[in-house]
Each structure stands twice: as structure tokens, then as C-alpha cells.
Task: inverse folding
């Protein structure tokens, strides 16, 4: 059986990080996902869903460092349901996503590098830099492999 969720959305608030008595860090935040559709009048509508996210230990520290309100994030995890009593003694039920993977999809400034969304771009490819920065035609540069040399 599989219980896996993948979400890409914007944070509704900065992550709230707590340290439990045993020293374990836990973080919570919410993200909004949007779905667009045309209604019966052929008008575009946007449906926003809010998801409660829980991160533990190292992911809580990563969320605290990298995620900010309004920022775009990629989350993978599992759906959990739990019950608790509020301050008035009323029993409440909540659905949460316990994350096991978390990435900020925001542009990072990185010493002049063009890293976008935390992923390398064409300008970050060392092969392209070696070719594009050769100053003389006689300098040796590595050629890309021929199509027959591809491992797949």
C-alpha cells in the first residue's frame, strides 16, 4: 500500500519551529495549492486548497533556514489524521502532511551563479563553461560524446 503526497505551493506563513523536551525539533506551516478550471459559464475559476505541513528534525531546521511566507516550496510526504483536544476541551480532528522531502523553489542568489529554484542551469554546467571560456582556437576542449556513446 502507498501513502504518498506531492505538493507544490506557496507558504501561508513562516515555518513555526519548536524544540521538544527531548531536543527534537518539529516545525509546522501551511502551503496553498491552486487549481484552475472553467465553470459552466466558461469563466476561469481558481480553487485554493490549504495543506498543514509537519517537518521533523533536520527537515525542521531546513524549513526554518530556507522557507519564508509566500515562497514556493516542493513537499513530499504522507497524509496523516489525528485528533486532539482544544483549549476548551473540544475534540478536534486535523489532517496533516508529514513531509519527508522539502525543497525551496525560490531563486537563490549564489555568488553570481544562476541557480534557479535550487537546480543547476545551463550557465552552471562546467562543460559549457569550458567551451564558452576558451580564448584561443588552439585550446583543447572536451567534445560532447557522440550519440552512439550514450549509455542508454
Result:
Amino acid at each position: 500500500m502507498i501513502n504518498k503526497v506531492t505538493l507544490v505551493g506557496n507558504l501561508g506563513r513562516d515555518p513555526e519551529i519548536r524544540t521538544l523536551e527531548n531536543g527534537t525539533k518539529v516545525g509546522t506551516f501551511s502551503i496553498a495549492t491552486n487549481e484552475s478550471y472553467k465553470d459552466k459559464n466558461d469563466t476561469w475559476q481558481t480553487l485554493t486548497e490549504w495543506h498543514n505541513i509537519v517537518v521533523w528534525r533536520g527537515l525542521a531546521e531546513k524549513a526554518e533556514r530556507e522557507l519564508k511566507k509566500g515562497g514556493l516550496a516542493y513537499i513530499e510526504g504522507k497524509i496523516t489524521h489525528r485528533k486532539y483536544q482544544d483549549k476548551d476541551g473540544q475534540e478536534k480532528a486535523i489532517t496533516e502532511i508529514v513531509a519527508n522531502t522539502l525543497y525551496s523553489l525560490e531563486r537563490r542568489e549564489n555568488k553570481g551563479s544562476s541557480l534557479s529554484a535550487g537546480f543547476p542551469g545551463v550557465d552552471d554546467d562546467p562543460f559549457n563553461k569550458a567551451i564558452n571560456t576558451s580564448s584561443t582556437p588552439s585550446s583543447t576542449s572536451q567534445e560532447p560524446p557522440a550519440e552512439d556513446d550514450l549509455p542508454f
The mean pLDDT is 81. Residues 108-136 form one domain.
